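CPD photolyase
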Amino acid sequence: MRRWNRALAKSSIDSAAIDLTGTCVYEPSLVAAPVTTVPTRDDDLHSPVLAAALPEGAPRPRGISAVAATLDAVDVQKVPIQPRVSRAFHANVRGGLRRSALAASSHPPATPSQPAVASSTACSAAGGLGGGTLVWLRPFDLRLHDHPALWYAAQRRRPVHVVFAWSDVEDAAQGEWQLAGTAAAFWLHHAIASLDAALRRRYGLSVAIRAGESLAGAILAAAKESGAEEVATSSACEPVGPAGHTANAAVESALEGAGISFKSFNSFLLRDVTQVRVDMGTYRGHFGTLTPFHHACMGQPPVPWPTSEPAALETPRVVLRSEGLDALGLARMPVRADGSVLDWGVPILTAWDISEEGALAVLRRFLAPGGGLGRYEKGRQLADASAVARISPYLRFGMLSSRLMFHEMKAAGAKDQSIVFWRRLVWRDLAYWQLTLFPRMRDEPIRAHYAGQVWSQDQHALERWQRGCTGYPIVDAGMRQLWATGWMPQNVRMVSAILLCEHLNIHWLEGERWFHHTLVDADPAINAMMWQNAGKSGLDQWNFTMSPATAGRTQDPRGDYVRRWCPELARLPLKLLHTPWEAPEHVLREAGVALGPGGNYPERVITDLQSAARASGDAIRSQRKRSVEWSDAQGYDLLVLPRGSTLAHDGRKFRVFTAPQYRNADTAHGGGRANARDEAVPERGPRSSERGGKGKGKSRGKGRSGADDDVRRRWGGMADSRQAFQAPCRAGTSHQSVLDEYMRASDAQR
Ligand SMILES: Cc1cc2nc3c(=O)[nH]c(=O)nc-3n(C[C@H](O)[C@H](O)[C@H](O)COP(=O)(O)OP(=O)(O)OC[C@H]3O[C@@H](n4cnc5c(N)ncnc54)[C@H](O)[C@@H]3O)c2cc1C
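Structure:
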């Protein structure tokens, strides 16, 4: 008796979904004419095999885990369905409907006893050096499931070469957004290694690592060497860089010159965001916020069904030369003067299972009954991450398909359990939509007239924030967790961002840079969007209060999070754990806590949070006053809507959400016009360079008004934190010493 094996449950489910329903692999670019029976209800997913497996009248399981458990109990011999051909497919054929190209070419399903590895000799008929298809892996599609390029290569039944290409030169050209040296690069290294192992296990294929001056050169050389007639890859969603549109275009044109064809498939986002246009004629929220975007997405084609892992990939006769993953230096560690290695990657590897199975297991656990999903709505603010998915790095590197996640969420009834979680993947698409419309948003404020804002230059305060030594335990715990594990929960990210931008008045770009450097899920679009919003120059300017002094009580009500990451405070009673500055001297002494210079935990980097927030608000208001032409009659900011963003308002000055506290009367403009938001203008808004700053962070302070000087003077007084930071964080934690060492090492490298 052949039984479904739990280890293969996921692929079995996919196979079942594809081969038995014949409709789950709806991929418009692959299927000549869409199958007309694409399931529309959750229940249709996996239904034939489950229907066969379930006793009469038994409730239908939902989500991967429940389905896997059911399939575990299935004796496949008894499933009265012909594998590979679906009932729906039969019905279609009988009904004279057109066959799906995919249904027509389905493979025998993989079984535990027969791994679907095509033999080398078998491909001799495929020709010479191998020919076939070269699958160009990207830093955002590192998986086997729902990988349209791999799937496409499998359908061609020709030898498959899998290549990951890298160019130090092109990465370095990204400047501060280069990947090498970041925690995300470390993750990328391990993600490639894990995919390589999975390809070997499952298909007997390996990933050829190719480095070159340019990605285009590396892929062209590999394609020529392999004799491939075709290169298939994933569509990039970033505008520039090695993972960007530019890379796709450069490779395509290099291949064209050599007569090699090129195919690119979108599977990173739920939708093709380049096609999303919001309707600003009907009021459904402000431009660039979630509601109108979500609404516009509803008008797009439904989220495609994920494809399964290919059942077989044909191995080429000649294996492509590989330079080896280590040669890329993505996980290279700093070396001390004595030659020993400073390995900051260990805690990251301890905290995460960097593999596709790891990603799927996280999703399964989260969606399963009793998992985080049921607690998300009320518990997502908890710093212990017990009610969130903790899945972002897998999505970032494409180890988990967002489309698979979407359909699994649907099957698990996620919308009913947490509407906020249900929209999370829409937020992700929104970030990429914004990046497509504002390709400079990683560096320059979307509200271009904010570029002249006066920011604090307090480098010392910035370092305290980076090191988790601000004196605010919830922020320090978060920044230390970030450093050690490459991740922190959303609400802790928010309160840390608020401390940096609103209270320390340090430019949001500094936060974005640090997160880019330290997050394993560092995402060009989401990170930029969130930091722009935190810094108030984004489209969804943050308009909520969250204080570093009080957030700990709601985010870490039991104190475990702070105790774990700030062990020097662990013996403080809970009611003072988040506010050690309120503790009487004797309580501090008994808990072994000494605050400030010479102590083991720092004094607060800034004490008067309210005045600080007022001052940073003044900085925003004052720069808004200098550019009243970019405010409407009600004091809202105006923006020229980029081409391709709306149904009917592209190229016009249009109102964007502006928090009430910045909409002061003297910024209101409009010369008596009833509605300034709909004014047509011939060109884009002011470039940041025209507004007295380069948009690259610090304002130079030249040629400013008296109001600016006033703001700067107040900042000078408040933000000088040096005195309180003589000997910060002598906590003796290993984290701290690694961090200090790392800082020294990177200073030395500079
Ligand atoms: C200042 C700041 C910077 C951030 N930088 C990043 C970043 O570089 N990369 C990143 O993936 N997330 C970033 N986020 C968003 C968010 O904090 C993380 O996605 C989330 O904490 C990841 O944990 P999770 O997987 O448990 O998320 P869940 O809450 O379980 O959400 C599931 C998934 O939805 C997506 N998602 C969640 N929140 C958002 C959001 N606000 N915008 C877009 N997509 C979202 C993510 O892919 C996430 O993995 C940032 C947030 C802030 C406040």
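Residues 631 and 637 are 4 Å apart (CA to CA).
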